[in-house]
Amino acid sequence: MNNFGHVIKLERIRKNMKQISLAQGICTPSYLSKIENNSIVPSQEVIDLLLNRLELSITQNKNLDDETYLAHIREIYFNAVMNKDRELAAQQLKEINNERYLFSDSTNYYTYQLMILRLTLIVQDIQNDTSELIMALSELSSDFNDYQMFLFHSCVGSYYSFMLDYNSTNQAYEKATEYFKRINIEKWEEADFQYLLGHCYITQQRWVISIEYLQKSLEFFKSGFYNSRTVESYLLLAIAQDESYLHEESHQNLLLAQKIASQLNLKEHFPLITQNLGNKFSVKGNSEKAIEYFLESIDSREEDNEKKLPTIYSLVKEYSKLKNSRQIIKWAEFGLSIINAIQSNGHRTYEHHLTVYLAKETDAILFEKATIDAYNYFKEIKDYRHAEKYSLLLGNFYQEKNKYKNAAKYFSYSNENMFKKQKISHWEDL
């Protein structure tokens, strides 16, 4: 066994171990550094001791070489990305992790690890030390080529998107775009990245550029009959077009998504389709019809409570428009119970939203604190849309309480965030 230092180095960093800790009683830190840089070939005894301390077992399949095995992993990666079969991807990821193939070439090993990271994100197994792998790969990124840097920043963007940190998502995808311009990749991978960018720009409310990227990805997905990705693209495109006042185009794309999903029984898309139909009726001011679709969306989620949170929040907003206090309390409490059961920081956005709406109906003192907390949170993560929303809510609250100084302050904050949301620097540009 030789040329495996890159494996030990990544695993050591992943476990947050210093070289001196790993080397203690086995070899000197300087000798370990040479091993990790593949500049020497240590004895089998040293190898075994290091692997044992890292709790890392590796079995080498001598019938395969690096290129053959990497091609096998890339095929799995391709199918997971393009077909979005999460159950199959999860099963294959488990098999890959059990195989523990040893790459003799560090470049192939890093590409392999980056594809494994994306597979992990596809199956949404965020709790499976994904952040630790990202941090470890980040420390090794100085050794990456341009394609690997593109993969790395794309994965980081996907991670932050899943965690609902859209500002960090945007920063990561902007870095990925820099490397994307330098490399030639396959058309399917290009279309996937364009879709990711389209989704990212929707969260940034950059509708025009979002539509541009989504139309490019949609064209490829349609031509290749990647039906699940086609439906996803139609759905996002409909959202961006709606926000750009292209309501007829948006409606047609939503109907196309519904038609494909129904004909091919793509059940995983039913919740998002009905969610979007609910959104359309919400915008039209028909809260009753919007609620019907939102309830249908929640029912189609079955037991997956975590994914119900966006729709629960939509329901709470519609019931708030109707001033239906009982239903606001019911759904806000249900959403918060889901968040408490998950015990993850990935849903702080919904936690703030639901806490404000619940407190508004139940506790005036708590409402003031909850809304200030929400305002500060959204301001911190540069979500100017919701920072504007909650500063306006606070301004109205203080005005009703005859606290005009506080009201003026938060009305001023609301205007400030409105300017930032629309990327306006001067009042003359309004």
UniProtKB/TrEMBL annotation:
PROSITE patterns: HTH_CROC1
Domain named HTH cro/C1-type: residues: 8-61
Entries under SMART domains matching the protein: HTH_XRE, TPR
Signal peptide per UniProt: none
InterPro entries registered for this protein in UniProt: Cro/C1-type_HTH, Lambda_DNA-bd_dom_sf, TPR-like_helical_dom_sf, TPR_rpt
Taxonomy, superkingdom: Bacteria
One Pfam match: HTH_3
Protein name as catalogued: Helix-turn-helix domain-containing protein
Organism: Paenisporosarcina macmurdoensis
